[in-house]
Amino acid sequence: MGRLIKAEFRKTLSLKVWWILIIPLVVVSFLLAFVWGKLTNDFADFMGDGTASIIAAQVGLSPDQLPVGLMAIAHGVNIAELVPAIFGVFALAGEYSSKTITTTFLTAPNRVSALSAKMITYLVWGALYGVVSFGVAALATLMTVSSQRLPTAGEWFAALGATVLAYMLVTLFGVGFGAVLNKVVLAVILLIGYFLLVENVLVLLLWDKTDVLGAILPNGTADGIVSGVAAQAMGVTSLNVPTTVANFDKLGLQLAAGAPGVVSWWLSALVFLAWTLVFFVGGWLGNQRRDIT
Amino acid sequence: MQHDGSGRIWVQGLSKRFGPVAAVQNLSFAVEPGSVTGFLGPNGAGKTTTLRMLLGLVTPSAGTALINGRPYHQLGNPAQVVGAVLENEGFHPRRTARNHLRVYAAAIGAPDHRADEVLGLVGLSAAANRRAGGFSLGMRQRLALATALIGNPQVLVLDEPANGLDPEGIVWLRNFLRSYAREGRTVLVSSHLLSEVEQTIDQVVVISGGTTRYYGSLEQLRSSRQSRVLVQAADSTALVTALQEAGFTQVEPTQDGRISVVGVTRQQVGDVAAKAGIALYGVEEDRADLEKLFFQLTTPQYAAPPPGYGAPQPGAWGGTPPQGYPPQQPGYPQQQPYQQQPYQQQPQQQAPQGGWGGQG
């Protein structure tokens, strides 16, 4: 197994994809965390008056205690999650498109070990991307958010852990999604289209009917891991948001945390793990049996 | 999980259906070490599917395909036992030749310098740092061969390796495969052109329509087809009578007015004609044409005798003999002198030379 993992790392490191993808990862993580941190921090400064103070009062927060830092980090790392997902697509679908899958299977004792080596390798890549994304988002947060609104030490670690976990799962999701479709370009387009557009529109359009979609669909649950940490610090998850808060104010508060409909970080992680397993197991079984002709 | 190290390929009753299409039907043959075996059949005969079943890439519908007594995925570290050059095998276009080889050297557990060794073996050292996407077809074939050789395998399986090679490359490949087999290793090479591999191979497995049509030595195939003598005589009728009286019964007229006699030498025809006082204007021997035999073996419609070409000889060259050739004992050693060499009998536990093997 060690040999095959070494081979998988050489595969990824001998191409440019891994560092080319770091560019959008860094840019998106930094920009979103920076813009969010800046705007929210300035906004929080005004929270002494108007509707903002009413909302803040409703959830029992004084403007100075708003976890703006956590919110900024969550916004930074959440959209950049697409990068490791796309990287994951190349793991198997990419090998089919370049037809190296034949040699990969020929040089492994069996397909289980070939696929396991891939899984482990891509989990490590996911974790690395997570650390990079978190680091950049944290930097942008430190640059923009007032010190009293920055996360506590425990919250920093919680956000880092949640980011790494989310990125590992999202990478595996990409591996499985690519393996099921077995087409690199189609998988990438569908991933971007669904995660950026389709699900967000769906959640917002159906918000007045149900707020549960964000807690069960892939994008909402993937985002909900890190955003769940922020929402819990803010007290605005669907479980602990006060009943006095109007439905669309709740949407606004949860959007501010980065995950409308979020229940808790660990429930999001569990549900997204289930989504990951659906695609990963599907892709795995397909590869276990497929005739390579 | 220990394979027997024999270097023997053993295929028994192998079948594969792709939906309604029977790609391979009840195929049986064996390939012995120390020889180059040709795996011949027209396009679509099932060669590629058979080789891919042997290599564990395609799951058979029925039957077994074993190397060293084991299915591919029970060989442990299979690429140290079997090297494969397959059609449709890919390289990432942006990965350099050396990096491609280093990836699979790592997978097999070979040291990194093995990548440069095999590049040298196939004559690609100068292109080591070039991306495979810029390679010509011939260079890609060489890189595929280099990949197959990383594990210094005892068995080499090649699917249409001559495709894309220039004449020089084909000669090089021929010599390479022959010397590989001379080291006591096993080489199985497929082709749809007999002429392409005729000078390379000793043994031949001919398949068509997914079934075995011939399995044995090339020499035996060649000699099994009797040659014929074409005679132009002043009095054809009298010559036919004289030949039949002399015991040569396989006599037929040809379209150009000559007589075709099977199972006779030119001298015998001349003697018979002289004795009968018949003038001969021309006597010509028509040797068995291997390519023509190949056509007859692989194309059902050629099973009927072509017009004016001798008498039909069902079974003379074993039209459908798979059952008659038990794969375990092809029984050719007595027909082929070089098979007597002592290394034939030794199981090849270790790769003969240049080995770095041993590590797990």
Question: How would you summarize this macromolecular structure in one to three sentences?
Answer:
By secondary structure, chain A is mainly α. In chain A, 77% of the residues lie in helices and 0% in strands.
Describe the structure.
Chain A has about 290 residues and is mainly alpha-helical. Helices cover about 75% and strands about 0% of the residues of chain A. Chain A has helices at about 1-15, 15-20, 20-45, 50-60, 70-80, 80-95, 100-105, 110-145, 155-180, 185-205, 215, 220-235, 245-255, 265-290. In chain A, helix 1 crosses helix 8 and helix 5 (about 70-80) packs antiparallel against helix 8 (about 110-145). The mean pLDDT of chain A is about 90. Chain B is an alpha/beta fold and about 350 residues long. The interface of A and B includes residues 3, 14, 102 and 293 of A.
Essential attributes:
heterodimer, A: 293 residues, mainly alpha, 14 helices, elongated, B: 360 residues, alpha/beta, six-stranded mixed β-sheet, four-stranded antiparallel β-sheet, 10 helices, 28% helix, 22% strand, disordered C terminus
How much beta of chain B, percentage-wise?
A: 15-25%
Radius of gyration of chain B, taken over Cα atoms and rounded to an integer in Å: 24 Å
Q: Number of helix segments of chain B?
A: 10
Total strands of chain A: the figure is 0
Mean pLDDT of chain A: 89
Number of strands of chain B: 13
**Share in β-strands of chain A:** under 5%
- Which sheet architecture does the biggest sheet of chain B show? 6 strands, mixed
**Proportion of helical residues of chain A:** over 70%
Q: Give the overall shape of chain B, derived from the CA principal axes.
A: elongated
Order of helices and strands of chain A: HHHHHHHHHHHHHH
Helix-strand makeup class of chain B: alpha/beta
Low-confidence stretches of chain B: 301-360
* Assembly state: heterodimer
Uncertain spans of chain A: none
